Amino acid sequence: MSGIGTGYDLYPTTFSPDGRIFQVEYAHKAVENSSTAIGLCCKDGVVFGVEKIILSKMLVEGTNRRVFSVGEHIGIATAGLTADGRRIVQNARQEAKNYENFTSDIIPIHVLTERLSIYVQVFTLYNYIRPFGCSLMIGSYDEEKGPSLYCIEPDSVALGFYGCAIGKGKQEAKTEISKLKLSEMTCKDAVKEIAKILIKTVHDETKEKEMELEMSWICKETKGKHKLVPKKLIEEAVEWVKGQENEED
Amino acid sequence: MFRTQYDSDISIYSPEGRLYQIEYAMQAVAQGSTALGLKSKTHAVVVTLMRSSDELSSHQRKIFKVDGHMGIAISGLTADARVLLKFMRNETLHHKFVYGSDLPTGEVVSSLAMKSQRNTQRWGRRPYGVGLLVIGYDGDKTHLYQTSPSGNCFSYYAQAIGSRSQSARTYLEKNFKEFPELGLEELVLHGVKALKESSGKETLTKLNVGIAVVGKEQKFEILKPNKVQSYLDQILQTEGEIEIENENENEKDEEAETLELKLD
Question: pTM of the entire structure?
Fold first, then answer.
Protein backbone atom coordinates (compact mmCIF):
# COMPACT_ATOMS: atom_id res chain seq x y z
CA MET A 1 0.00 0.00 0.00
CA SER A 2 2.91 2.38 -0.56
CA GLY A 3 2.82 5.51 -2.62
CA ILE A 4 1.52 4.36 -5.95
CA GLY A 5 -0.39 7.57 -6.14
CA THR A 6 1.79 9.76 -3.97
CA GLY A 7 1.81 13.29 -5.21
CA TYR A 8 -1.18 12.82 -7.52
CA ASP A 9 -3.74 11.71 -4.99
CA LEU A 10 -4.64 14.69 -2.87
CA TYR A 11 -7.46 16.18 -4.92
CA PRO A 12 -10.01 14.84 -7.42
CA THR A 13 -8.81 17.50 -9.85
CA THR A 14 -5.45 15.79 -10.39
CA PHE A 15 -4.87 12.99 -12.89
CA SER A 16 -2.02 10.58 -12.25
CA PRO A 17 0.48 9.92 -15.06
CA ASP A 18 -1.44 6.74 -16.00
CA GLY A 19 -4.72 8.56 -16.25
CA ARG A 20 -6.31 7.63 -12.90
CA ILE A 21 -8.02 9.85 -10.37
CA PHE A 22 -6.84 8.48 -7.04
CA GLN A 23 -9.20 10.36 -4.73
CA VAL A 24 -12.13 8.66 -6.47
CA GLU A 25 -10.40 5.28 -6.11
CA TYR A 26 -9.87 5.96 -2.41
CA ALA A 27 -13.58 6.74 -2.15
CA HIS A 28 -14.16 3.19 -3.45
CA LYS A 29 -12.00 1.93 -0.59
CA ALA A 30 -14.33 3.65 1.85
CA VAL A 31 -17.16 1.53 0.42
CA GLU A 32 -15.06 -1.61 0.72
CA ASN A 33 -14.51 -0.93 4.41
CA SER A 34 -18.22 -1.18 5.14
CA SER A 35 -20.44 -4.22 5.62
CA THR A 36 -22.08 -5.92 2.66
CA ALA A 37 -25.37 -5.15 0.93
CA ILE A 38 -26.99 -7.39 -1.70
CA GLY A 39 -29.72 -6.74 -4.26
CA LEU A 40 -31.47 -9.39 -6.35
CA CYS A 41 -33.82 -9.04 -9.31
CA CYS A 42 -36.30 -11.90 -9.13
CA LYS A 43 -39.18 -13.06 -11.24
CA ASP A 44 -41.70 -10.93 -9.37
CA GLY A 45 -39.71 -8.14 -7.75
CA VAL A 46 -36.48 -6.83 -6.25
CA VAL A 47 -35.14 -7.77 -2.81
CA PHE A 48 -32.42 -5.94 -0.81
CA GLY A 49 -30.48 -7.40 2.09
CA VAL A 50 -27.95 -5.59 4.30
CA GLU A 51 -25.54 -7.13 6.79
CA LYS A 52 -25.56 -4.67 9.69
CA ILE A 53 -22.80 -5.16 12.23
CA ILE A 54 -24.07 -4.49 15.76
CA LEU A 55 -21.48 -2.27 17.39
CA SER A 56 -23.13 -2.14 20.81
CA LYS A 57 -25.60 -4.28 22.71
CA MET A 58 -27.42 -1.16 23.78
CA LEU A 59 -28.43 -0.12 20.27
CA VAL A 60 -32.15 -0.13 19.57
CA GLU A 61 -33.01 -2.76 16.94
CA GLY A 62 -33.51 -1.37 13.47
CA THR A 63 -31.64 1.87 14.10
CA ASN A 64 -29.11 3.23 11.61
CA ARG A 65 -31.14 2.22 8.57
CA ARG A 66 -29.31 1.33 5.39
CA VAL A 67 -32.34 0.92 3.09
CA PHE A 68 -34.49 3.90 2.19
CA SER A 69 -37.64 4.60 0.21
CA VAL A 70 -37.81 7.19 -2.51
CA GLY A 71 -41.43 7.89 -3.27
CA GLU A 72 -43.41 4.69 -2.67
CA HIS A 73 -42.13 2.64 -5.57
CA ILE A 74 -38.33 2.87 -5.40
CA GLY A 75 -35.97 1.47 -2.81
CA ILE A 76 -32.31 2.36 -2.23
CA ALA A 77 -29.77 0.31 -0.28
CA THR A 78 -26.40 1.86 0.66
CA ALA A 79 -22.92 0.67 1.54
CA GLY A 80 -20.06 2.90 2.63
CA LEU A 81 -20.34 6.11 4.64
CA THR A 82 -23.95 6.07 5.81
CA ALA A 83 -24.14 9.84 6.19
CA ASP A 84 -23.10 10.30 2.56
CA GLY A 85 -25.70 7.73 1.49
CA ARG A 86 -28.41 9.65 3.31
CA ARG A 87 -27.37 12.84 1.60
CA ILE A 88 -27.80 11.21 -1.82
CA VAL A 89 -31.15 9.75 -0.78
CA GLN A 90 -32.28 13.22 0.30
CA ASN A 91 -31.40 14.44 -3.19
CA ALA A 92 -33.20 11.46 -4.77
CA ARG A 93 -36.35 12.27 -2.80
CA GLN A 94 -36.21 15.86 -3.98
CA GLU A 95 -35.81 14.70 -7.60
CA ALA A 96 -38.77 12.35 -7.28
CA LYS A 97 -40.93 15.09 -5.81
CA ASN A 98 -39.98 17.59 -8.50
CA TYR A 99 -40.66 15.07 -11.26
CA GLU A 100 -44.06 14.29 -9.82
CA ASN A 101 -44.94 17.96 -9.44
CA PHE A 102 -43.94 18.63 -13.03
CA THR A 103 -45.32 15.58 -14.85
CA SER A 104 -48.04 14.35 -12.43
CA ASP A 105 -46.47 10.92 -12.80
CA ILE A 106 -44.13 8.88 -10.61
CA ILE A 107 -40.47 9.02 -11.55
CA PRO A 108 -39.24 6.02 -13.60
CA ILE A 109 -36.23 4.30 -12.06
CA HIS A 110 -33.92 4.83 -15.02
CA VAL A 111 -34.56 8.58 -14.94
CA LEU A 112 -33.84 8.73 -11.21
CA THR A 113 -30.67 6.66 -11.63
CA GLU A 114 -29.35 8.93 -14.32
CA ARG A 115 -30.03 12.06 -12.28
CA LEU A 116 -28.39 10.59 -9.20
CA SER A 117 -25.30 9.54 -11.12
CA ILE A 118 -24.98 13.07 -12.51
CA TYR A 119 -25.30 14.39 -8.95
CA VAL A 120 -22.62 12.00 -7.69
CA GLN A 121 -20.36 12.86 -10.61
CA VAL A 122 -20.39 16.58 -9.83
CA PHE A 123 -18.61 15.86 -6.55
CA THR A 124 -15.67 14.31 -8.45
CA LEU A 125 -14.98 17.46 -10.44
CA TYR A 126 -13.79 20.05 -7.94
CA ASN A 127 -10.97 20.31 -5.47
CA TYR A 128 -13.01 21.83 -2.69
CA ILE A 129 -15.51 19.01 -2.31
CA ARG A 130 -14.80 15.30 -1.88
CA PRO A 131 -16.48 12.42 -3.76
CA PHE A 132 -19.23 10.52 -1.95
CA GLY A 133 -17.85 7.55 -0.06
CA CYS A 134 -20.81 5.28 -0.71
CA SER A 135 -22.34 3.00 -3.34
CA LEU A 136 -26.08 2.74 -3.85
CA MET A 137 -28.32 0.03 -5.21
CA ILE A 138 -31.60 1.36 -6.60
CA GLY A 139 -34.48 -1.01 -7.24
CA SER A 140 -38.05 -0.87 -8.44
CA TYR A 141 -40.81 -3.15 -9.75
CA ASP A 142 -43.29 -2.36 -12.47
CA GLU A 143 -46.15 -4.54 -13.72
CA GLU A 144 -45.24 -3.95 -17.35
CA LYS A 145 -41.46 -3.65 -17.31
CA GLY A 146 -40.82 -6.05 -14.47
CA PRO A 147 -38.09 -5.64 -11.86
CA SER A 148 -35.15 -3.22 -12.32
CA LEU A 149 -31.94 -2.93 -10.30
CA TYR A 150 -29.18 -0.35 -10.77
CA CYS A 151 -25.95 0.26 -8.90
CA ILE A 152 -24.19 3.64 -8.61
CA GLU A 153 -20.56 3.67 -7.47
CA PRO A 154 -18.56 6.64 -6.08
CA ASP A 155 -17.19 7.34 -9.55
CA SER A 156 -20.82 7.81 -10.68
CA VAL A 157 -20.84 4.78 -13.02
CA ALA A 158 -24.41 3.43 -13.02
CA LEU A 159 -25.00 -0.05 -14.36
CA GLY A 160 -28.09 -2.23 -14.49
CA PHE A 161 -27.87 -5.61 -12.76
CA TYR A 162 -29.80 -8.82 -12.27
CA GLY A 163 -27.92 -9.38 -9.05
CA CYS A 164 -25.47 -7.09 -7.29
CA ALA A 165 -23.39 -6.86 -4.12
CA ILE A 166 -21.51 -3.89 -2.62
CA GLY A 167 -19.24 -3.56 0.41
CA LYS A 168 -16.63 -5.70 2.11
CA GLY A 169 -17.84 -9.13 1.03
CA LYS A 170 -18.94 -8.25 -2.48
CA GLN A 171 -16.60 -10.69 -4.23
CA GLU A 172 -17.78 -13.74 -2.30
CA ALA A 173 -21.38 -12.58 -2.51
CA LYS A 174 -21.17 -12.06 -6.29
CA THR A 175 -19.79 -15.58 -6.70
CA GLU A 176 -22.73 -17.01 -4.78
CA ILE A 177 -25.25 -14.85 -6.66
CA SER A 178 -23.96 -16.04 -10.03
CA LYS A 179 -24.87 -19.59 -9.01
CA LEU A 180 -28.52 -18.66 -8.48
CA LYS A 181 -31.21 -18.91 -11.16
CA LEU A 182 -32.69 -15.47 -10.65
CA SER A 183 -35.23 -15.47 -13.46
CA GLU A 184 -37.04 -18.45 -11.89
CA MET A 185 -36.81 -17.30 -8.27
CA THR A 186 -39.63 -15.68 -6.35
CA CYS A 187 -39.04 -12.88 -3.86
CA LYS A 188 -39.80 -15.13 -0.90
CA ASP A 189 -37.07 -17.55 -2.04
CA ALA A 190 -34.73 -14.63 -2.61
CA VAL A 191 -35.18 -13.55 1.03
CA LYS A 192 -33.88 -16.97 2.10
CA GLU A 193 -31.01 -16.98 -0.37
CA ILE A 194 -29.85 -13.49 0.59
CA ALA A 195 -30.01 -14.45 4.28
CA LYS A 196 -27.89 -17.49 3.48
CA ILE A 197 -25.24 -15.51 1.63
CA LEU A 198 -25.03 -12.79 4.26
CA ILE A 199 -24.99 -15.11 7.28
CA LYS A 200 -22.87 -17.94 5.98
CA THR A 201 -20.66 -16.66 3.20
CA VAL A 202 -20.06 -13.02 3.94
CA HIS A 203 -20.24 -12.65 7.73
CA ASP A 204 -17.23 -13.96 9.61
CA GLU A 205 -18.44 -14.88 13.08
CA THR A 206 -14.97 -15.36 14.49
CA LYS A 207 -13.66 -11.99 13.41
CA GLU A 208 -16.65 -9.69 13.59
CA LYS A 209 -19.35 -8.96 16.11
CA GLU A 210 -22.96 -10.01 15.79
CA MET A 211 -24.95 -8.93 12.79
CA GLU A 212 -28.49 -7.77 12.19
CA LEU A 213 -30.29 -8.47 8.91
CA GLU A 214 -32.12 -5.56 7.32
CA MET A 215 -34.16 -6.56 4.30
CA SER A 216 -36.66 -4.83 2.08
CA TRP A 217 -38.49 -5.57 -1.15
CA ILE A 218 -40.57 -4.14 -3.98
CA CYS A 219 -42.64 -6.88 -5.54
CA LYS A 220 -46.00 -8.09 -6.78
CA GLU A 221 -47.03 -8.91 -3.23
CA THR A 222 -46.41 -5.38 -1.99
CA LYS A 223 -48.17 -4.10 -5.11
CA GLY A 224 -45.07 -2.33 -6.35
CA LYS A 225 -44.46 -0.46 -3.10
CA HIS A 226 -41.11 -0.48 -1.30
CA LYS A 227 -41.55 -2.07 2.11
CA LEU A 228 -39.41 -3.72 4.79
CA VAL A 229 -39.62 -7.52 4.65
CA PRO A 230 -41.89 -8.65 7.52
CA LYS A 231 -39.90 -9.67 10.60
CA LYS A 232 -41.51 -13.10 10.58
CA LEU A 233 -40.16 -13.88 7.11
CA ILE A 234 -36.66 -12.82 8.07
CA GLU A 235 -36.79 -15.01 11.18
CA GLU A 236 -37.97 -17.96 9.07
CA ALA A 237 -35.15 -17.35 6.61
CA VAL A 238 -32.57 -17.32 9.44
CA GLU A 239 -34.03 -20.59 10.78
CA TRP A 240 -33.82 -22.09 7.31
CA VAL A 241 -30.15 -21.08 7.03
CA LYS A 242 -29.39 -22.71 10.37
CA GLY A 243 -31.25 -25.83 9.23
CA GLN A 244 -29.10 -25.94 6.10
CA GLU A 245 -25.93 -25.79 8.20
CA ASN A 246 -27.09 -28.74 10.31
CA GLU A 247 -27.85 -30.77 7.18
CA GLU A 248 -24.37 -30.16 5.84
CA ASP A 249 -22.77 -31.20 9.13
CA MET B 1 0.86 5.29 7.82
CA PHE B 2 -0.50 8.02 5.63
CA ARG B 3 -1.61 10.31 8.36
CA THR B 4 0.51 13.36 7.76
CA GLN B 5 -0.32 13.71 4.11
CA TYR B 6 -4.01 12.96 4.05
CA ASP B 7 -5.25 14.31 7.31
CA SER B 8 -5.21 18.07 6.99
CA ASP B 9 -8.33 18.55 4.89
CA ILE B 10 -11.82 17.11 5.28
CA SER B 11 -12.06 16.80 1.52
CA ILE B 12 -9.19 14.31 1.17
CA TYR B 13 -9.56 10.54 1.41
CA SER B 14 -6.60 8.49 2.63
CA PRO B 15 -5.45 5.57 0.43
CA GLU B 16 -7.35 3.25 2.75
CA GLY B 17 -10.56 5.15 2.15
CA ARG B 18 -10.65 6.87 5.54
CA LEU B 19 -11.44 10.48 6.35
CA TYR B 20 -9.03 11.39 9.12
CA GLN B 21 -10.53 14.77 9.86
CA ILE B 22 -13.78 13.10 10.92
CA GLU B 23 -11.86 10.69 13.13
CA TYR B 24 -10.01 13.60 14.71
CA ALA B 25 -13.29 15.41 15.30
CA MET B 26 -14.51 12.31 17.15
CA GLN B 27 -11.40 12.61 19.30
CA ALA B 28 -12.59 16.08 20.29
CA VAL B 29 -15.77 14.43 21.53
CA ALA B 30 -13.74 11.90 23.47
CA GLN B 31 -11.86 14.73 25.18
CA GLY B 32 -15.00 16.21 26.69
CA SER B 33 -16.09 15.06 30.12
CA THR B 34 -18.52 12.17 30.44
CA ALA B 35 -22.15 12.45 29.45
CA LEU B 36 -24.46 9.46 29.57
CA GLY B 37 -28.06 8.75 28.79
CA LEU B 38 -30.48 5.92 29.54
CA LYS B 39 -34.15 5.32 29.03
CA SER B 40 -37.02 3.24 30.30
CA LYS B 41 -40.44 2.80 28.77
CA THR B 42 -41.71 5.94 30.50
CA HIS B 43 -38.70 8.19 31.13
CA ALA B 44 -35.37 9.17 29.63
CA VAL B 45 -32.49 10.54 31.70
CA VAL B 46 -29.15 12.20 31.00
CA VAL B 47 -26.41 12.50 33.59
CA THR B 48 -23.24 14.54 33.07
CA LEU B 49 -20.01 15.33 34.88
CA MET B 50 -19.30 19.04 34.63
CA ARG B 51 -15.82 20.51 34.63
CA SER B 52 -14.69 23.86 35.99
CA SER B 53 -11.50 25.46 34.77
CA ASP B 54 -10.48 26.70 38.23
CA GLU B 55 -11.87 27.06 41.73
CA LEU B 56 -13.27 30.50 41.17
CA SER B 57 -15.22 29.70 38.00
CA SER B 58 -18.55 27.95 37.69
CA HIS B 59 -18.92 24.50 36.17
CA GLN B 60 -19.46 24.29 32.44
CA ARG B 61 -23.07 23.36 31.71
CA LYS B 62 -23.54 20.32 29.52
CA ILE B 63 -27.30 19.89 29.51
CA PHE B 64 -29.59 22.14 27.52
CA LYS B 65 -33.31 22.25 26.89
CA VAL B 66 -34.45 22.17 23.28
CA ASP B 67 -38.19 22.12 23.80
CA GLY B 68 -40.71 21.00 26.40
CA HIS B 69 -40.33 17.38 25.34
CA MET B 70 -36.69 17.27 24.31
CA GLY B 71 -33.23 18.10 25.59
CA ILE B 72 -29.56 17.37 24.93
CA ALA B 73 -26.38 16.54 26.80
CA ILE B 74 -23.13 17.43 25.04
CA SER B 75 -19.56 16.25 25.01
CA GLY B 76 -16.86 18.09 23.09
CA LEU B 77 -16.55 21.64 21.82
CA THR B 78 -19.18 23.66 23.67
CA ALA B 79 -19.21 26.43 21.07
CA ASP B 80 -20.12 23.96 18.31
CA ALA B 81 -22.82 22.53 20.54
CA ARG B 82 -24.33 25.99 20.86
CA VAL B 83 -24.71 26.21 17.07
CA LEU B 84 -26.41 22.81 16.89
CA LEU B 85 -28.61 23.67 19.86
CA LYS B 86 -29.79 26.86 18.17
CA PHE B 87 -30.59 24.83 15.05
CA MET B 88 -32.60 22.30 17.04
CA ARG B 89 -34.51 24.99 18.89
CA ASN B 90 -35.39 26.67 15.61
CA GLU B 91 -36.63 23.44 14.08
CA THR B 92 -38.80 22.50 17.04
CA LEU B 93 -40.20 26.01 17.37
CA HIS B 94 -40.98 26.23 13.68
CA HIS B 95 -42.79 22.90 13.77
CA LYS B 96 -44.82 24.02 16.75
CA PHE B 97 -45.73 27.24 15.00
CA VAL B 98 -46.81 25.57 11.77
CA TYR B 99 -48.39 22.33 13.03
CA GLY B 100 -49.21 23.09 16.65
CA SER B 101 -47.55 19.90 17.90
CA ASP B 102 -44.23 18.64 19.23
CA LEU B 103 -41.61 17.84 16.63
CA PRO B 104 -40.72 14.12 16.85
CA THR B 105 -37.22 13.65 18.28
CA GLY B 106 -36.15 11.35 15.46
CA GLU B 107 -36.89 13.96 12.84
CA VAL B 108 -34.84 16.73 14.39
CA VAL B 109 -31.96 14.30 14.97
CA SER B 110 -32.13 13.28 11.29
CA SER B 111 -31.96 16.92 10.18
CA LEU B 112 -29.06 17.46 12.55
CA ALA B 113 -27.24 14.48 11.09
CA MET B 114 -27.73 15.84 7.57
CA LYS B 115 -26.42 19.24 8.71
CA SER B 116 -23.36 17.59 10.23
CA GLN B 117 -22.73 15.60 7.04
CA ARG B 118 -22.64 18.77 4.94
CA ASN B 119 -19.67 19.95 6.93
CA THR B 120 -17.78 16.78 6.13
CA GLN B 121 -17.88 17.20 2.41
CA ARG B 122 -16.71 20.71 1.56
CA TRP B 123 -13.16 21.99 1.71
CA GLY B 124 -12.90 24.97 4.01
CA ARG B 125 -15.43 23.58 6.48
CA ARG B 126 -14.72 21.36 9.43
CA PRO B 127 -16.91 18.74 11.10
CA TYR B 128 -18.72 19.83 14.28
CA GLY B 129 -16.48 18.73 17.14
CA VAL B 130 -19.28 17.73 19.48
CA GLY B 131 -21.31 14.62 20.20
CA LEU B 132 -24.86 14.97 21.44
CA LEU B 133 -27.06 12.68 23.47
CA VAL B 134 -30.63 13.69 22.65
CA ILE B 135 -33.45 12.57 24.93
CA GLY B 136 -37.08 13.13 24.13
CA TYR B 137 -40.61 11.91 24.76
CA ASP B 138 -43.09 11.96 21.90
CA GLY B 139 -45.64 9.63 20.40
CA ASP B 140 -45.94 7.88 23.78
CA LYS B 141 -42.38 6.65 23.46
CA THR B 142 -39.07 7.62 25.00
CA HIS B 143 -36.10 8.31 22.74
CA LEU B 144 -32.36 8.42 23.23
CA TYR B 145 -30.19 9.29 20.24
CA GLN B 146 -26.47 9.77 19.86
CA THR B 147 -25.17 12.06 17.11
CA SER B 148 -21.54 12.28 16.09
CA PRO B 149 -19.35 14.58 13.96
CA SER B 150 -19.52 12.07 11.09
CA GLY B 151 -23.22 12.72 10.58
CA ASN B 152 -24.29 9.30 11.82
CA CYS B 153 -27.07 9.07 14.35
CA PHE B 154 -28.04 6.03 16.39
CA SER B 155 -30.91 5.19 18.69
CA TYR B 156 -29.85 3.60 21.98
CA TYR B 157 -31.30 2.09 25.13
CA ALA B 158 -28.32 3.51 27.01
CA GLN B 159 -25.07 5.16 25.96
CA ALA B 160 -22.11 7.09 27.38
CA ILE B 161 -19.76 9.46 25.54
CA GLY B 162 -16.73 11.54 26.46
CA SER B 163 -13.55 10.80 28.37
CA ARG B 164 -13.46 7.66 30.49
CA SER B 165 -16.90 6.77 29.16
CA GLN B 166 -15.93 3.13 28.65
CA SER B 167 -16.33 2.41 32.36
CA ALA B 168 -19.79 3.95 32.35
CA ARG B 169 -20.65 2.02 29.19
CA THR B 170 -19.56 -1.25 30.81
CA TYR B 171 -21.82 -0.54 33.79
CA LEU B 172 -24.72 0.32 31.49
CA GLU B 173 -24.20 -2.80 29.37
CA LYS B 174 -24.43 -4.96 32.47
CA ASN B 175 -27.68 -3.40 33.61
CA PHE B 176 -29.54 -2.03 30.59
CA LYS B 177 -31.83 -5.04 30.16
CA GLU B 178 -33.73 -4.12 33.33
CA PHE B 179 -34.10 -0.41 32.47
CA PRO B 180 -37.36 -0.56 30.46
CA GLU B 181 -39.51 -1.44 33.49
CA LEU B 182 -37.84 0.86 36.02
CA GLY B 183 -39.41 3.92 37.56
CA LEU B 184 -37.81 7.35 37.35
CA GLU B 185 -36.01 7.23 40.71
CA GLU B 186 -34.23 3.95 40.04
CA LEU B 187 -33.38 5.02 36.50
CA VAL B 188 -31.66 8.17 37.74
CA LEU B 189 -29.81 6.17 40.41
CA HIS B 190 -28.46 3.84 37.73
CA GLY B 191 -27.34 6.87 35.76
CA VAL B 192 -25.49 8.35 38.71
CA LYS B 193 -23.87 5.01 39.54
CA ALA B 194 -22.71 4.72 35.93
CA LEU B 195 -21.28 8.24 36.16
CA LYS B 196 -19.42 7.28 39.31
CA GLU B 197 -17.68 4.52 37.35
CA SER B 198 -16.14 7.01 34.96
CA SER B 199 -15.52 9.84 37.42
CA GLY B 200 -12.15 8.45 38.41
CA LYS B 201 -10.62 10.29 41.36
CA GLU B 202 -13.04 13.18 41.12
CA THR B 203 -15.66 13.23 43.86
CA LEU B 204 -19.22 13.74 42.72
CA THR B 205 -20.91 16.77 44.28
CA LYS B 206 -24.12 18.59 43.57
CA LEU B 207 -22.09 21.23 41.74
CA ASN B 208 -20.34 19.03 39.23
CA VAL B 209 -23.09 16.51 38.45
CA GLY B 210 -25.88 17.48 36.09
CA ILE B 211 -29.07 15.45 35.73
CA ALA B 212 -32.05 16.02 33.45
CA VAL B 213 -35.21 13.99 32.93
CA VAL B 214 -38.06 13.83 30.44
CA GLY B 215 -40.91 11.42 30.04
CA LYS B 216 -44.57 10.61 30.40
CA GLU B 217 -46.21 13.54 32.21
CA GLN B 218 -42.75 14.92 32.84
CA LYS B 219 -41.59 17.88 30.84
CA PHE B 220 -37.87 18.18 30.15
CA GLU B 221 -36.40 19.36 33.43
CA ILE B 222 -32.84 19.95 34.60
CA LEU B 223 -32.77 18.90 38.25
CA LYS B 224 -31.83 21.49 40.87
CA PRO B 225 -28.60 20.91 42.85
CA ASN B 226 -30.51 19.90 45.99
CA LYS B 227 -32.34 17.16 44.12
CA VAL B 228 -29.02 16.01 42.64
CA GLN B 229 -27.56 15.90 46.16
CA SER B 230 -30.37 13.62 47.33
CA TYR B 231 -29.47 11.08 44.64
CA LEU B 232 -25.76 11.35 45.48
CA ASP B 233 -26.59 10.76 49.14
CA GLN B 234 -28.47 7.59 48.23
CA ILE B 235 -25.45 6.31 46.29
CA LEU B 236 -23.05 7.18 49.13
CA GLN B 237 -25.32 5.45 51.63
CA THR B 238 -25.29 2.14 49.73
CA GLU B 239 -21.54 2.49 49.22
CA GLY B 240 -21.07 3.12 52.92
CA GLU B 241 -22.87 -0.16 53.62
CA ILE B 242 -20.62 -1.98 51.15
CA GLU B 243 -17.55 -0.40 52.78
CA ILE B 244 -18.56 -1.60 56.23
CA GLU B 245 -18.95 -5.14 54.86
CA ASN B 246 -15.50 -4.93 53.29
CA GLU B 247 -13.96 -3.66 56.52
CA ASN B 248 -15.36 -6.64 58.40
CA GLU B 249 -13.89 -9.00 55.82
CA ASN B 250 -10.51 -7.27 56.05
CA GLU B 251 -10.46 -7.64 59.81
CA LYS B 252 -11.09 -11.37 59.46
CA ASP B 253 -8.21 -11.65 56.96
CA GLU B 254 -5.85 -9.85 59.35
CA GLU B 255 -6.70 -12.28 62.14
CA ALA B 256 -6.02 -15.21 59.86
CA GLU B 257 -2.63 -13.75 58.91
CA THR B 258 -1.53 -13.25 62.52
CA LEU B 259 -2.48 -16.84 63.32
CA GLU B 260 -0.30 -18.12 60.50
CA LEU B 261 2.67 -16.11 61.72
CA LYS B 262 2.35 -17.61 65.18
CA LEU B 263 2.37 -21.11 63.75
CA ASP B 264 5.56 -20.34 61.87
Answer: 0.82
